[in-house]
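Quick note —
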Amino acid sequence: MAEQYVAHCKKTGNNVVVYHSLPEHLHRVAQLAGTFAAEFGNRDWGEYIGYLHDLGKYHPLWQQYIRTHANQDENLHIESQRGKPPHSGVGALVAVKQCNNEIPSRVFAYTISGHHSGLSDWYSELECRLLKNSEITSTNLVQSVEAATSFLNCPLPITKPCVISNEKQSFEHLHLWIRMLFSCLVDADFLDTEEFMEPEHTKARGTYLSLHELKKRFDYFIAQKEQQVPDTPINRKRKEIRTICVEKAKLPPGTFSLTVPTGGGKTLSSLAFALEHALHFGKRRIIIAIPYTSIIEQTAKILKYGTDNDEEIIERKNSGNVLFGEDQVVEHHSNIDPREETARNRLACENWDAPIIITTNVELFESLFANTPSMCRKLHNIVNSVIILDEVQLLPPEHLKPILSVLRGLVDHFGVTVVMMTATQPLFEGTIGRPPTVIQGLHNVRPIIDDPESLAREWNNRVEIIFPKTLTNPMNWENVRDELLQHEQVLCIVNSRKDCRELHNLMPEDTIHLSALMCGEERSVIISTIKEKLRQGKQIRVISTQVVEAGVDIDFPVVYRALTGFDSLAQAAGRCNREGKLPQKGKVIVFIPPKPSPRGLLRYQEDACKELLRNNKVDELSPQLFKQYFEYFYARLDDMDKPRFYERLVKNAPYFVFAFRSFAQEFNLIDEVQQSIVVWYTNPKNGNNSEELIKQLQAGNINRNLLRKLQRFVVNVHLKIFENIRKQGFVQEVAGYWIQSSDGLYKPGLGLELDDTKWLENCVI
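Predicted structure written out below.
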């Protein structure tokens, strides 16, 4: 045992120390990383960095350290211990020397030296670190260890990076290739370490059904559904759309657009395409990325049970007539209900090794540009997959340049098929914007629906959209209220939380208020209540921000919408006569609100819509008009590369100089000037109570399950609003989290009670 070189160690139940062989660990990590990298044609690169990643653990001081702590500590996962001798830089320096310090060797410096700390910036961090005397001394010492000889002499990779072909020396996606290699190494390291430290977790992985088996479930469910649903024009059209999707799935992999009017069954149709396409071309998994957690919860229910109706879900669960089932769909987002999350789901969220993943745009794209091991770990499992981007028009404009670039890279070099799905397809192909703000969009985008104009015309028969006669005369809120009171069932969507509060204050007491000033737990209750009252034909009036628009499956006979972006108007129309059950057309009334939107994206959207209405006679919502609207909108933007993508990740790529850490810190799809507050709320339907959870937090009983439960009771507010709340003494900090500490901050039915509403003008949901 004394001569054995150790990678990890642990104590068994009878207090016996068990050692994880270092040579075995290096071989196993190399094997796994090579297998992962083989998916994009660079097995030898994955194997090489796997062999060298923990070479520094051959250092005598490191071996002495781990053996000493093995007999002292209960927590023996040595990576997290302070005071340990460094080891990550040794393998990186060995690789750089073996390559005679040539520029491409920097790939090894990034991946090997960062496999615990993350991908670094080259000049400001990594170069300085590798040149430290301590790193060089350690490397020289390890190179003198005879047992390390076989790893020191392992052959260098000979394949070219998959992003650099013989025909075209393009370096735009070299940063993505390095992240993919990094992901292969990190996941391989985690998995082999886990198999030694926590073998029960290893056994729980990889027990999902294959895509082939899931396709059988899908086909059976659809066959049953078609026998049960009424034979209406809308249901026939949904079946036709789904059939087209299956037929087009046999087209070669690449980028597709799926343009289907709201209510056209996009979720099941896109899944029909993805399953057929994946099986036909050997894709490994389906990843569905969604902009809002409110949509993600609904989509997850549909994929698990075949419906998002809570009452119907109970019936389906009892009868066993579900779609994929709870245990076959992995949800990866912050708002997942911990009561419904399995241990296997948590494990799959770490590296996305399940066949169907539902996640958020934030999780997907921030991972693709991340630098930390935990965020990057999943990336190699995106290779050779089908990505469905739901409500694609909601991708943040200020980040379009890096987002569209990485999508091109995934399609061109990593075997990914991308489906851009929405009722309001944006203009993401070719050149976007106008000088000096111009970016390159996607190429060769193939429509799944050949004639979306005709489909839109057929679908628009459900509703009549009424635009204001003039764009210069705004309505006051009292006039809006008077019109709303003429309808028994009506939804009114406004442009900000402030507008929502002001109009709601003028309405009768039984009017429902809905905005993101409410916590997720209450919003779920409210949406469920809305659906129930609509089904029962009861009186219901709702004042909402646009949180109700994208993906929330509700069906009003009349919808009022404050003038805004043309795409949002279409989403609002999708909440009107959704099922076509009315004897006449539903009505969507667009009105000019009392005040224009504040300057910024909201004003750009509003102004682009006004320009569209001035230049066109609009009496229906058509795909061609959406494209024209987005042309107007993107022409107004002065920045589509807020985190400086070209400067940090492309400009110096030929020299393998990247600012991984700096870019990751700047690439945030959600504005960071927000603060989360855990509020007091009790769910009247199931009794879930945040105050009981807060007591556990205050007692120090902090664990992942508790934090996930608390997430259901979080409200995010602008930092300046938060500072006002804090100064008034409504919140206190507990274990790093801000918690409501006194009455008067949160009111069920309204959410956060704020005296100063000035900052709400920019808050759209």
